[in-house]
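Quick one, tokens below. Sequence please?
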């Protein structure tokens, strides 16, 4: 693709020869004359004078590079769109593979692709253009919207309702039973039937081996535009708002509510029935045991404001030395007391 064509499709201005050919994408340090690279700012500018890239995506006000450039007010966003143009994902051919098992009552929209060994249960509805890859299992009465992608080995249990353009990665499990038990007088745990629904709204992405559980009553819901990383646990009855981001290994206990725009770093844990307010940010490893106000930025265990956690972390590292000083002071004090006349 020529530079002028790419810049036009990205709706960006460019500097350099319009006929520069771009055939690949690479890091700034490894790019060649036919590659596109990203220089979004910061430490990337150190490598810019040495790059051999054919074209670099740059902020609007950045210095001139030694090659052609695409100028963007949002370089990362432009680079993401350029990747989609230069490295398009191969689409599976429409149709049902002979080795797939599709119930007679299932309804498939136009252009649906069903891969080998996939299983679609009774009364399943699949929207136009959705791609279902090999070894996917879809239970009875599932609704799967238009333009979705369900990667290999995912399991979508009965009555899960999924909106349009949802991306589900390998091994994800949607609609497994929530972890609910009642202890009987004899000490044995009796299972609480988990019979309610899971709802995934439009434009959600669900990472590999992530689990989203169904509750006994009500629903578990993932709001539109939310992005969930690999190995995340969303327990029964939790409600995740719109445009929420959860990094890997986040764990949400039952009936957690994350309001719109919440961002949680890796390994964040949230206790049951906690509400995290709109736009709050939870740093990696934070453990949240009580409600969080909108816009709060928390870190640590127990969760506290980020600035307070940073100060506490500095003190924590000095605790061994402080302990030695305290022991020495106590020994001196004890010696002084022992010398006082009785």
């Amino acid at each position: 693709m020529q530079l002028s064509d790419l810049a036009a499709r990205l709706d960006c201005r460019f500097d350099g020869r319009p006929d520069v050919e771009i055939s690949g994408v690479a890091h700034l340090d490894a790019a060649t004359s036919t590659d596109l690279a990203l220089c979004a700012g910061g430490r990337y500018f150190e490598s810019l004078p040495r790059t051999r890239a054919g074209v670099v995506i740059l902020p609007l006000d950045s210095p001139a590079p030694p090659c052609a450039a695409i100028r963007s007010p949002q370089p990362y966003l432009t680079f993401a769109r350029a990747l989609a143009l230069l490295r398009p994902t191969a689409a599976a051919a429409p149709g049902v593979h002979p080795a797939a098992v599709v119930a007679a009552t299932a309804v498939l929209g136009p252009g649906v692709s069903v891969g080998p060994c996939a299983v679609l249960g009774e009364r399943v509805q699949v929207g136009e253009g959705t791609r279902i890859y090999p070894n996917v299992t879809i239970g009875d009465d599932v609704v799967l919207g238009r333009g979705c992608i369900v990667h290999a080995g995912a399991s979508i249990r009965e009555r899960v309702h999924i909106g349009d353009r949802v991306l589900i990665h390998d091994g994800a499990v949607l609609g497994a039973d929530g972890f609910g038990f009642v202890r009987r007088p004899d000490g044995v745990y009796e299972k609480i039937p988990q019979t309610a629904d899971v709802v995934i709204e439009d434009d959600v992405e669900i990472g590999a081996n992530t689990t989203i559980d169904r509750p006994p009553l009500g629903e578990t819901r993932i709001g539109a535009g939310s992005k969930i990383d690999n190995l995340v646990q969303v327990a029964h009855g939790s409600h995740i708002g719109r445009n929420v981001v959860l990094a890997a290994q986040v764990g949400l206990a039952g009936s957690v509510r994350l309001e719109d725009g919440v961002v949680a770093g890796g390994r964040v844990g949230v206790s049951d029935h906690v509400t995290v307010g709109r736009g709050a940010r939870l740093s990696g490893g934070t453990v949240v045991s009580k409600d969080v106000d909108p816009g709060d930025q928390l870190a640590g265990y127990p969760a506290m404001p980020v600035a307070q956690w940073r100060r506490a972390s500095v003190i924590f590292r000095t605790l061994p030395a402080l302990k030695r000083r305290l022991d020495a002071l106590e020994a001196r004090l004890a010696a002084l007391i022992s010398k006082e006349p009785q």
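The chain has a mean pLDDT of 94. Residues 97-275 form a domain with the UDP N-Acetylglucosamine Acyltransferase; domain 1 fold (CATH 2.160.10.10).
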